[in-house]
Amino acid sequence: MNDFIDQAARLLLDSYAEVGGLNHGEGANLPSKPAIGTICQDLLQILFPGFHDDTAVSENELRDLTRARVASLADRLETEICKSLRTSSPDCPKAKAASILSRFFNALPALRKTLQSDIEAAYEGDPAATNFEEIILAYPSIETVAIQRMAHLLYRESVPLLPRIMTEWAHSRTGIDIHPGASIGSHFFIDHGTGVVIGETCVIGDWVKLYHGVTLGARSFPKDDSGRIIKGGKRHPNVESHVTVHPNSTILGGETVIGTHTTVGANVFLMQSVPPRSLVFIEERQVQILPKK
């Protein structure tokens, strides 16, 4: 067994020396995925007090509990922001991370108001919804959008890695993949949600409703003279206010705009803009029902 272990370790060490890009000798300087997962869970606690706790939270203890939670989160989140910033700027001062952290927490009250509008949209948009408590506790879109909206705050601060790890944490739990760069208006609702993909440069208006399997993606990727994909640029569509996109539809392209009050039917594939107040659908084939032999 020892010979086997020695050989396996030696082969791996040779691979570490040969194969670049998969090694990070100072791994402690990278943001921690497990730590960020815990931070996400704790952020949900302060956004929705009482909904993500094992025991009841009384009004009498809410002030002290909230302060303790903010203090704990601030300490841990500042550490992860620092590590994230240092991946692109090794000499990044801690004061910059502290400034970003301050703006992040100051933005959370307004973010909670937007989340309240998302919950209202879910209640109004889903006849199966019986109350707000059910939506907060059981609807995957609320959890995912809450994390994405917080990650978007850090994305706008140009914090590397951390926002994407946050949204991927939510993605792994809900099956909804929203890039932290996507800009999303109020009263946003994803019904069911499984398989939804929203790209980095999407701009989504108010009162937009998506169903499961919807993709708001990129049409193509321009390449440089060496054949490499050019990073950045507007790649994903704009969806204006009061738009509904039904299941398994795909809308692609940075120049594509879905006009206000448009309904996109199921299984539609779009790579062109649609004017306001449109109905987009695929001509249905006639369904045949025959008796079995």
Question: Could you characterize what this model shows?
Answer:
- The structure is a single chain.
- This protein is of the alpha/beta class and 293 residues long.
- The protein has 7 helices and 14 strands.
- It folds into 2 domains: 27-174, serine acetyltransferase, domain 1; 195-283, Hexapeptide repeat proteins (UDP N-Acetylglucosamine Acyltransferase, domain 1, 3 Solenoid).
- It is 44% helix and 11% strand.
- A 5-stranded parallel sheet has the order 1-4-7-10-13.
- The mean pLDDT is 91.
CATH architecture of the largest domain: Orthogonal Bundle
**Using only CA atoms, what is the Rg?**
23 Å
Q: Which shape, going by the Cα principal axes?
A: globular
Order of helices and strands: HHHHHHHEEEEEEEEEEEEEE
Mean pLDDT: 91
Number of separate helices: 7
Structural class: alpha/beta
Strand order of the largest sheet: 1-4-7-10-13
Identify low-pLDDT runs. Answer: none
Main sheet specs: 5 strands, parallel
Count the strands?
14
Give the termini separation.
63 Å
CATH class of the largest domain: Mainly Alpha
